[in-house]
Amino acid sequence: MTRGVCLFGGAFNPPHLDHSAILRAAWTRLAPDEIRVLPAAAHPFKAADADMAPFAARAELCRLAFAELPGVVIDEREALRPGPSYTVDTLRELRRALGAATPLYWLLGSDNLPQLTHWREHHEILRLCTVVTYPRTDHPCDAQALAGLDLDEAERHAILAHVLPVPPLSLSASAIRRRLRAGQPVDDLLHPAVLARIRALHLYGT
């Protein structure tokens, strides 16, 4: 029987060492058959971000960042769809491809919990997969964090029941981009191959 597929979506602009830590924790704690990293082609909440690297570059950086991690596959399906990269569309595609019996786990930072109910068809998202939250610094995943959100009691219970037991993570891709543009060191924040490729492609002002 399948142990399920873990899904990790985002801009990955760029992928950093906290992303790797999340994937290691998910592999250990959830024991999925595989982990699919899903770079967003057109992030609905970051479409106007002038600092967004091209999709192909971000996908390549993900391959470099996570090459040494067990079970990780870079899934570029969101680049094949026109328009914004909506999570619900990706989940429907994966559900059709993997079947109704395959558990799907969507990794979500606790800082994104307040935005979850603004995602397109968020109730359908919660039906199609199990959201597994990982803690971010200053963003607890508790009942208070979910207070006032458009969630029913079953949805609230499911979210609170699936939290990765890892220390809160604090790295920010936007802060890393600022450091790169300022010429400040980021060697302890990025995989060496990722940093080398960023410089080779002259991304983020390098």
What features would you describe in this structure?
With 206 residues, the protein is an alpha/beta fold. The chain has one domain (5-170): HUPs (Rossmann fold, 3-Layer(aba) Sandwich), CATH 3.40.50. It is 39% helix and 13% strand. The protein has 9 helices and 5 strands, in the order βαβαβαβααβαααα. It has helices at 17-30, 55-66, 87-98, 113-116, 122-128, 143-146, 153-161, 173-181, 192-201; strands at 5-10, 34-39, 72-74, 104-109, 130-134. The chain has a 5-stranded parallel β-sheet with strand order 3-2-1-4-5. Strand 2 (34-39), helix 2 (55-66) and strand 3 (72-74) form a beta-alpha-beta unit. Helix 2 runs antiparallel to helix 9 and helix 3 (87-98) runs parallel beside helix 5 (122-128). The radius of gyration is 17 Å and the shape is globular. It starts with a strand and ends in a 5-residue tail after the last helix.
Please give the structural blueprint:
Blueprint: E1 5-10, H1 17-30, E2 34-39, H2 55-66, E3 72-74, H3 87-98, E4 104-109, H4 113-116, H5 122-128, E5 130-134, H6 143-146, H7 153-161, H8 173-181, H9 192-201
Parallel strand pairs: 1-2, 1-4, 2-3, 4-5
CATH architecture: 3-Layer(aba) Sandwich
Summed over residues and divided by their number, the pLDDT gives a mean of: 95
The CA-CA distance between the termini, in Å, is 47 Å
Specify the biggest β-sheet. Answer: 5 strands, parallel
Helix-strand sequence = EHEHEHEHHEHHHH
Number of helices: 9
Kindly provide the radius of gyration, computed on alpha-carbon positions and rounded to a whole number of angstroms: 17 Å
Helix content: 25-40%
Q: Could you state the CATH homologous superfamily? A: HUPs
Shape: globular
Catalogue the unreliable spans: none
Oligomer: single chain
- Sequence of strands across the biggest β-sheet: 3-2-1-4-5
Kindly state the number of beta strands. Answer: 5
CATH class: Alpha Beta
Strand content: 5-15%
**What is the CATH fold-level name?**
Rossmann fold
Tell me the structural class: alpha/beta
